Structures are given as structure tokens and as C-alpha cells.
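Q: Okay, next protein. This is Beta-lactamase from Paenibacillus prosopidis. I've checked the sequence twice, so it should be correct. Can you predict the 3D structure?
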Amino acid sequence: MEYARGFGQFCVVLPDQNAVIAITSGAMEMQTVLDYVWEHLLPGMSDTPLNEDPEVQENLEKKLSALAYPSPVTMRTSSETYRWHEKCYEVGSNEAGITHIRFHFTDNEFIFSFQDQTETQTLEIGNEVWLENQLKIAGDQMKVKAAGTWRKKNVLELSLRFIETAYCDTWTFHFVNDSVKVSAARNVWIIPGLSDSAFLPTLIGFQYRDRDMWVGNGGGQQ
């Protein structure tokens, strides 16, 4: 047996069974993934072809077509959103060069805008549903699906699934009075040059006092 791996990405070669098993996942407990192969797949292999079973095949196809990641669900709304809706925050120095952030809340989605020295990006976050976006952080652009939920009346949690990668990030927005802290965690270790693509650094922001300040015009007045 031979295999290659990385954050749960496996290619397992089984010469005796004349089989190759390819697995994609985002897991740090990589031995557990292999244990499932030995427990469930290997015992089902034999030297002779299996008899056709249309019912079993149909059930398998239905199960595979219905596989999905559930969106995070705790609270759909917060009674405090009026305090942060359409507010612009100036952000302290950070590795991604983000200078300003802004929030917009509706019944069906949360919109998070952030600006660096060159452009403003808008991330559409589904309220307990997944919405597809293009995300660019520190020069790394990736396709993601985003969904969010309120964990507390002042804590918004966002789940980001990076399409075509093993990454799943959790962004937490913690609002306190006129400030917000944005922190991120990834499902795998952050290794520079390997697994740090498009990883959001911790951001600390404070609201502008001038109501005319906004992210989209570079922090200037309208």
C-alpha cells in the first residue's frame, strides 16, 4: 500500500485489490480518515465482481446527490443590528492591508464590505443559507460560499467554505458599543506558503463619527 496525504487529501494505492482510492477532505485527524477506509471500504472489496443490485445502486446515487454541508443556524436576527447597519469602521494596521470595513443587514443576508489601499470588496453572506462569492485577501483570490448566523445579539458568526480546496474558515464579528473585532479560524493548521491562502487576519475597527464616511469612496466624504 502507498498513499500521499495533506490535510486529509489521500490517494491510496491498493495493488492486491487492483484499486486506487482518492479522498478529498479538510481534516487534521488524518489517521481517522484512513481508519474509515479499512473499516468500511476494504472489507467490501473481493476478488470476484459483485452481483448487480439496482435498488442498492439507486439508494447510493440518491444519497450521494443529497450530500451537503448544513448552514450554521442559531438566531436569524439580532435586535441590535440598527447600531451597526451601514456603519463604517476604521481598522487598525493588519497583514492584509485592510483599512475600512462596513456592514449591511437585511432579513435574508448580511453584507460585509472591506477596503484595502486598492479596492473595495463585498462579501454576501446568506442568513442560514449559502451564497457564492469571489474573495480576495492579500492578493489571494478564491471562490467561496458563505453563510452566517447570530450566536449572541452582538456576535455574528460566518462560515466560509473555499470551493475546490480543503479550507473552511469561521469568521466571528464581535460588536461592542462603537467597535468591532473580527477574528478568523481555519479548519487546518495555518502554515505560511502552504495553507495560509486568503486567510483573514484579526481586525479591530472603530466607527467613524462622521455619518457621511463610508467604505466605498476610500474613506472620504460624499
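A: Here is a summary of the prediction. Confidence is low (pLDDT under 50) at residues 1-5, 211-222. Residues 30-41 form the longest helix (12 residues).
Q: Noted. On to the next one.
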